[in-house]
Amino acid sequence: MEPKINIKILAAILIVVIFSVFTYFGILTNLEHRLYDVLLHLKSDVPEDQRLLLIDVDDTSIEKIGVWPWSRDIVADGLITMSELGADYTVFDIEYVQSSPTAVDPEFLKTELPGVFADEFDIINQNILDLFGAIASGALPVEVAEDYIYDLTMLNDQTKDILIAKVAEVTRDNDEYFKNTIYFFDNAFFTVNMVDDYEVELSEELEKWIFDNIAYKNITVDTDLYPRAESIDPTLAKLLQASRGAGFPNIIIDDDGVRRRIDFFTEYKGEYFAQLAIAPFLEWIGSPELTLTDSELLIKGAEIPGEDKPRDISIPRAEDGTFLLNWPAKSYWDSFRHLSYYYMVLHEWQEAALIENLGLLEADQFFSYYEGDQDIFAGWDYAESIKNEILAGGDRGYLQDYRDAREYFFAEVGSFIDGQAESVIRGQIQDILADESLSEDDFAYYSDTDKYVETSFAEIRLMYADYIKTREIIREAVDGSFCIIGSSATSTFDRGVNPFSKEYANVGTHAAVVNMIIQDSFLDDSPEWLSIVIAFVITLLLYLIIHNMDALPSIIWGIGIVIVLAALEVGVFLATGIYVQLLTPVLSVSVTFLFMSLMKFLETARERSYIRNAFGHYLSDAVIENLIDDPDKLTLGGEKKHMTAIFTDVKGFSSISEKLDPADLVKILNMYLTEMSNLVMDQGGTIDKYEGDAIIAFFGAPVEFDDHAKRTCRAAVRMKKLENIMNQHFMEDELVPNPLLTRIGINTGDMVVGNMGTARKMDYTIMGNAVNLAARLEGVNKQYNCWKLISSMTADELGDEFVLRKLDRVRVVGISEAVRLFELVDESELANEQTLEIVDIFHKAIDLFEAKNWLEAGDLFQKILSIDPEDGPAGVYIRRCEEYKKKSPPANWDGVFNLTTK
User: Do 484 and 93 contact (CB within 8 A), yes or no?
Assistant: First the structure.
């Protein structure tokens, strides 16, 4: 045995070494990642900070605004709106690394330029009218007019120059405008890409400015484990220099395409740049001191808004130096709060339409009914002047005045259009219309005016309500929020895969980064060597446990250890967020116990082959299987079991055998025994032995059945039916002189079963009183002229599956206790109506018989013979009734018959 043990030990160690090598070279990495993803689904979801807001350049935005990327003034206008309505920080997950083309200034084109054209053309028209008026009145002689025409031409040329100069002002540098709005907003952050595969040329001045203003200064790095960039590709300089800061948007994608981890800092020329979400987050929490080591990023004294006091935050680093992302366990649209960027543009459109229509009301003198202290547009004009001043680089300290002025203006507009002005104006019109002296034309004019006033107020109210609704949607979303703007539209392809979603907009990554830090909810992994050590320890422990076990217990132990090991590692992850690599220990243990089980199966197969070869010729298959499962049963001994025994014997076989030559006798006997034995074994029975034509069998060992009595009776019924078919064949072929008629006795009870004999010669057989009774019942069939007798102990276990005919209570030879006998008639489902009728009549008759009513009992038994003249038991009882009519049994007769013959 020692060589086998050594082989198994060496095999176990080799298996662990192989899987350890697989782990070291990353062969199992993708599978390990999948297991990690599965565990993430089991972990409780990380809470979401409600201050985080994703502002989506979504499908709706692109459909309503136009093809992406948009003109930068669209984004710039949105920044002003967000600033006004209380956004705290805004992070752009959008790259603005190139200058944008010159664009049209829509505000100048819509408001100022038309006024300039109108003024200049008014001057031209007036000069022409003055010239021709003077000529027409004679004030200017015709012969002198030519000189004035030259002057008029000069004036027109001057007007042309003025208009050309003004038209040139219609273009706008949108990058400059965007820069100004970034300054206006103040807390905006942009991208600075970390580059490894190409060189970006930066001026020394810009690079120095980036080092001084974008790189994070308050950090101590005590590790060499961090990414390094060959170059950087920052946002356009004028935009970057107006911003609060920037970070790199680079995201790590694992080999299987899934985003699970991220870098927080990247080094470039000795400076450390933060990730796009980390940069504004650090600003948000007070630019704390950081320490980066191999194992963690320590944030010291983080002043998280809304928390009472500063706290230290330790963010664990994975073994590769990255930070594992604790994603929300949801789709992109179900995680965090969202606002479509379309609302920003809709706000601009609705405001422009509202102001234009308010201007029309002012032109129609509606605001002469305004009861404020000053012109209603004063608040608007004041807010615009502040905005323009800040956009021009003025003091941002007036930003609150800008907000207050606009709030005041829109509140006043709402009060005016919902106030008494309409009713006052229309009341005055109604007073005029009530004047009976009003002409028909004037009446029509004032009626139209009344409808115009009503319509104007209704339309302006609707426009105002829509605008305020949009405004409040934006305010509710952005007020006090940490906003992240990026693309989530299906057409932009800025989407990725995370462990919970096959399509997750990448902009959501930045929200996940900030959220897990705020929630102090981190994930980590253990070193590879720990998994290898676990694999070695558990595998060797498994070997010590199962190396002397049989195959099945070995498998059970192996599976159990794998389950416990996996459960422990899952428990560690769910409790601590630390992922211990599962595959190396689980595969090592699994393959080890499978290998050892295979070895044991091969050993067992050799034993099975030996047993089959040694005993297969004279033991049943069931017994052989039982011996194979438990070879110890080859030793002598038995066990007590509750079973059913069956004894069969062919009536008058001795006289039949005398009429056949030996060869024919053997042939007939083998055919008979084969078919009858097959029926027994088909029902799971065990053939004990053959005694000439007799079969001794039992049910319930070595294979145990709860329904052994039913199986035995089912076999008995079918044996008699098969016997009829065989007899027809035998008689037609003249193989036997007489039909083979089998008597069957069946009893159920406790019996001793097992291997009995000597160590050199043994039989798997049964013994006991219950066995003896079954043997006696086979012979008792002759007393009742029937073929299948069972005891009441067997009948009690049959239920209603069989048709039984109740017979006497008897004492058989060698058995002192009285037993109720039953004739086994047929299976209930197969019995015909005549059979059921006979049994029913017989039971009534037997009850009368046992009540000593011989006359009526005899009549019923006679009725049975009229139905079936061949009914054996009925004939027996008729003879008894006739005898008892002549001479009654003793008065103390208990109804039990003593059978004196076997």
Answer: yes
